[in-house]
Amino acid sequence: MRKGSQSEPVFMKPAIFITSSVLVGLLFAFQEWLSIHHMGYRLPSLIFFESWGYQFLVWGSLCWLLWHFFSLQIQRASILRIIFVFLPLSVAISLAQQMLFVFIFRNLPLNHSEPSYWRRLSIYVYAELLDNMLIFWCAFGLFRGVGYYQRFREHENAKAELEVQLANAQLAALRMQLNPHFLFNTMNGISSLMRSDIEAADTMLEQLSCLLRLSLERGDSQLITLREEIEFVELYLAMQGHRYSGRVKQSVRVDPELYDSLIPSMLLQPIVENAYVHGLSRTESAGTLILEVQRRGNQMRVTVMNSGIGLNPTSEGDAHGHGFGLRNIKSRLKLHYGDDSRFEIAQVDPRHVRVEVEIPLQYSPESTKPITRFGTR
Questions:
Q1: Residue 321: its pLDDT value, please?
Q2: Domains: count for the chain
Q3: Which of 77, 175, 321, 340 is found 20 to 30 A from 55 (Cα to Cα)?
């Protein structure tokens, strides 16, 4: 607990702790004075406040010194150490406090006409030794309780930090899964064009290079602005436009106010890629792909609708997941937002599939520098 291993509670600061102790003493003084006053005795009120205030000033100082110098020993004390070390220490400190009190307040107790020091000390030891020891053990229990609480909080903080680190590691692993999957599919598309349209394949290679550069510029960032994600998706759509020779009508609509909002990196591209791989690529007729990002209260809703063959799975791997990319997205949304996100894939009609994602709307406190768009210099 000492030397910064745990943060010191605010109420254990010396000024706060000792002042609070004195206030408790004055409260006891007022209670005793009021009780004696109601019984009909008329005694100087000042002596009550002086004696009680002084007594708790000394106890507050002694207890704080115990905390400051012996807190670790108090926290780790075994039963034997408590009995053979702290029990005698409580007696010694209580006696020392009483000896000092009797020496300073020579006119107490009031009902004795200047008895000797030792006689007055014996009176106070007989009357108040157990009370003083009780104060010591209350402070001892408080310090033990503070230690238990601090260790509990330290354990909880460490557990929360480990959970965050685990979640970040899982997110990083999911991101790493997406990159080779995306690259593999894109390279297959370029390979198929090499035999039919070399110029389009060359353009796609250039665009792929730009996509990889954008991905590297993002680094390990898990959340990026929607503007950056849309730029990435638009570049990917341009590549698919070359690959499918313009037979897919593409539409991207985004609420302007959402461009600076935050979104998990590589969230939209796998959804769009899934629309091509599992829908648009399986039909020879012209197709459509619509991407919309809208605000719904405190949520951001992403909708991707595409034409194709619907949700009739052709393989076991497609069922209930409609592709690797969507399964990956579900896992990442769960890690990012828990139960505050929604993912839904549905067949609108026999030839159209819609994917909807809702996530909490949030903005970065600092504006992120936009990634350079493809084609600019």
A1: 40
A2: 2
A3: 77
Taking a C-beta distance cutoff of 8 angstroms, is the pair 315, 282 a contact? Answer: no
Q: Alpha helix locations (H) across the chain?
A: 14-38, 45-76, 79-81, 87-104, 117-193, 198-218, 226-243, 268-278, 324-337
CATH assignment at residue 245 = 3.30.565.10
CA gyration radius for the chain?
Answer: 37
Please check whether residue 59 lies inside any domain of the structure: yes
Domain that holds residue 336: 194-360
Is the bond leading into 313 cis (omega within 30 degrees of zero)?
no
Q: What is the pLDDT of residues 305-329, one digit of tens each?
A: 998 877 665 444 444 445 667 887 8
- Residue reference for tokens 């648009």: 280
17 with 124, same domain: the answer is yes
Q: Is residue 174 part of a domain?
A: no
pTM (two decimals): 0.51
pLDDT above 70: percentage of residues in the chain: 80
- Dist CA 103 CA 361 (whole Å): 70
DSSP string, 43-67: --HHHHHHHHHHHHHHHHHHHHHHH
Give just the sign of the alpha carbon dihedral 271, 275, 281, 286: negative
Q: Is residue 17 a part of any domain in this protein?
A: yes
In a domain, 172, yes or no: no
Q: Which residues pair with 347 in a beta bridge?
A: 353
Residue 370's φ and ψ, nearest 5 degrees, are -65, 145
Measure the CA–CA gap between 60 and 14, rounded to whole angstroms: 9
